[in-house]
Design a protein that fits this description.
about 500 residues; alpha+beta; Dipeptide-binding Protein, domain 1; Dipeptide-binding Protein, domain 3; seven-stranded mixed β-sheet; five-stranded mixed β-sheet; about 20% strand
């Protein structure tokens, strides 16, 4: 039986509760805004070489048969498993049975065949067509099985299938993927406001685990100071690779933010047009190599030590050879080589620079170093679409500064039509041998030979490895610290 005292106490509490405002429990955050330095020129990773395309789309909108995890390991994706024949020529992939494209198109073996044949078609603009060159035949015995037969054993075949150039697309949507991408990934395209941002939403019909994020926005902020300001103001939740290393101490001191230092596969080079005089003369390229004080350049760009390189190869790989002393800084040797090449007073050339801060800053330092031996490198800043059109596709340049971020991309030097136009039959034969050498130790030894040839020929000015400075809000987790591939898989990002 309730006593009068108990009743009054209960009534008092009830009356008091009626006077208090309703307080809703805080809901977990399910959206994120991530800043990038460069805006992708298109949204189809099979249509161009720009890193920014992959940052936004790979493992978010589009997927391949396999994918690369944050440690660089190849793991299943649209193919749940595979078998390789004893002769290393036949790959049998078992496909996911529950994967569909964002428009409802079922994922089947026929779409794998379509995607790979499209990549090597005469009108293909795929930047890495050589990934598919080893394929002799593609069979689709049933909707969930693909059998790929190679012309010869290819050591890095699966590795290449993890790149953005090998994502699976559908015939009905492939032509519009540059602006309205349709894939099988955990996020679907919503809208793209060019020059500002791109919005994605969770794909609730995704075949895999449901991402924690319901919405994600990529904002394109090229100005280093603006990147810092947007992070400190909370306008963005993360920056994939900070372009203002001088602000690291300030950002680390901010309790609302976290700063992480990681490694990439990005070899930063002074790209050189080997087919254009005077750079077609080995002595001129050697002279430039003797001028390039890598440590001075890297410290000028970042203010702290980064990994220096002497050839086109990342120190992350076990086959790396330190060749940074092949042409040590020596102005007297550089001047003597220029004189032997018929340029005792140097010459004038253009140095075309894309927007990233590392390229613009390194370019200014390089121009000052080259001036010491009479080489007048006139700096010409380009926006990235201009750089892709004039330098990368048009080969209309003398010198440039750029990071090559694909892993194990040393094979590009065997491509006669590649933009720095290096043509060396000895090197091409060596890369062809590497491609069919399966034992890892033997293959790594051959990679060492390849590095030495490029260093010897001073094909480009090999500078340093692009570091990755990731800045995030304190409660955001899952962003990749290292970049074995330059991507930002949103399905791994979560608020804590």
């Amino acid at each position: 039986m309730t006593t009068r005292r108990e009743f009054l106490a209960g009534a008092g509490l009830e009356a008091l509760a009626a006077q208090l405002p309703v307080i809703a429990l805080a809901q977990p955050k399910d959206s994120v805004t991530i800043a990038m330095t460069l805006e992708p020129p298109t949204l189809d990773p099979t249509s161009g070489a720009a890193q920014a395309i992959r940052e936004v789309t790979l493992q978010n909108i589009f997927e391949g048969l396999v994918r690369m995890d944050r440690t660089g390991k190849i793991v299943p994706c649209l193919a749940e498993s595979w078998e390789v024949a004893a002769d290393n020529l036949t790959y049998r992939f078992k496909l996911r049975t529950n994967a569909t494209f964002h428009d409802g198109t079922p994922f089947t073996s026929e779409l794998v065949k379509f995607s790979f044949e499209r990549a090597v078609a005469p009108d293909s603009t795929n930047a890495q067509r050589q990934l598919f060159a080893p394929i002799a035949a593609i069979e689709t015995p049933d909707p969930v099985t693909v059998v790929i037969t190679l012309k010869q054993p290819t050591a890095n075949f699966l590795y290449g299938l993890a790149w953005g150039d090998a994502v699976i697309v559908a015939p009905a949507s492939a032509a519009n993927n540059k602006t309205s991408p349709v894939g099988t990934g955990p996020f679907r395209f919503v809208r793209w406001n060019r020059g500002d941002r791109l919005e994605l939403a969770r794909n609730d019909a995704y075949w895999g685990a449901k991402p924690a994020l319901a919405k994600a926005t990529f904002r394109f902020i090229s100005d280093p100071a603006a990147q810092v300001a947007s992070l400190r103001a909370g306008d963005v939740d993360a920056q994939t690779n900070l372009a203002a290393p001088e602000a690291v101490a300030q950002l680390k001191a901010d309790p609302k933010l976290k700063v992480a230092f990681g490694k990439t596969e990005g070899e930063v080079i002074l790209a050189t047009n080997n087919a254009k005089p005077p750079f077609n003369d080995l002595r001129v390229r050697q002279a430039i190599a003797h001028v390039l004080d890598r440590k001075t350049i890297a410290l000028g760009v970042y203010g702290f030590d980064v990994d220096l390189i002497g050839s086109h190869f990342s120190p992350l790989h076990p086959a790396y050879v330190d060749l940074t002393n092949t042409y040590p800084p020596d102005l007297a040797k550089a001047k003597a080589l220029l004189a032997q090449a018929g340029h005792p007073n140097g010459f004038t050339c253009t140095l075309r620079l894309p927007p990233p801060a590392y390229a613009r800053r390194a370019g200014e330092i390089i121009a000052a170093l080259l001036a010491q031996v009479g080489i007048n490198a006139r700096i010409e800043p380009l926006e990235f679409p201009q750089w892709l059109e004039r330098v990368f596709r048009g080969k209309d340049f003398d010198l440039s500064v750029i990071a090559h971020t694909e892993p194990l991309d040393i094979g590009n030097y065997a491509r006669d039509d590649y933009y720095f136009q290096y043509r060396n039959p000895e090197f091409k034969a060596l890369i062809a041998k590497i491609d069919v050498t399966l034992p890892e130790a033997e293959r790594n030894a051959l990679y060492g030979e390849a590095q030495r040839i490029l260093a010897r020929d001073a094909v480009n000015g090999f500078l340093f490895v692009l570091p990755k400075i990731t800045v995030t809000a304190a409660g955001l987790e899952g962003m990749w610290t290292d970049w074995p591939l330059p991507i930002t898989p949103l399905a791994e990002v979560v608020w804590r």
